[in-house]
Specification:
single chain, two-stranded antiparallel ribbon, 10% strand, cytoplasm
Length: 86
């Protein structure tokens, strides 16, 4: 089903983000938005996109971007800038 594919894609992207952050010794907190609509709505509100899907990446309350933007930053070796750490 489409939902399963979408869920697998999210999990795969999430695992990739976590792997890269861990390889750079960057601490992170994973927030599960499947626990309820309120958490999902908060993510979408902070991202400024009412249809945003995970993973969305934040530095505290500051929105950094989505998976594609993170992936581009990895390719350009600009993860720290993307995460607003530099």
């Amino acid at each position: 089903t489409l939902f399963t594919l979408s869920y697998r894609t999210v999990k795969s992207q999430q695992a990739e983000v976590m792997r890269i952050l861990e390889s750079k010794s960057i601490q992170y907190e994973l927030i599960d938005i499947s626990v309820g609509g309120e958490v999902r709505d908060e993510m979408r509100s902070k991202a400024g996109n009412p249809t945003a899907v995970p993973p969305q990446i934040f530095n505290e309350d500051q929105y950094c971007g989505n998976y594609e933007m993170f992936s581009d930053a990895v390719e350009e070796d600009k993860v720290e800038q993307f995460l607003k750490m530099a």
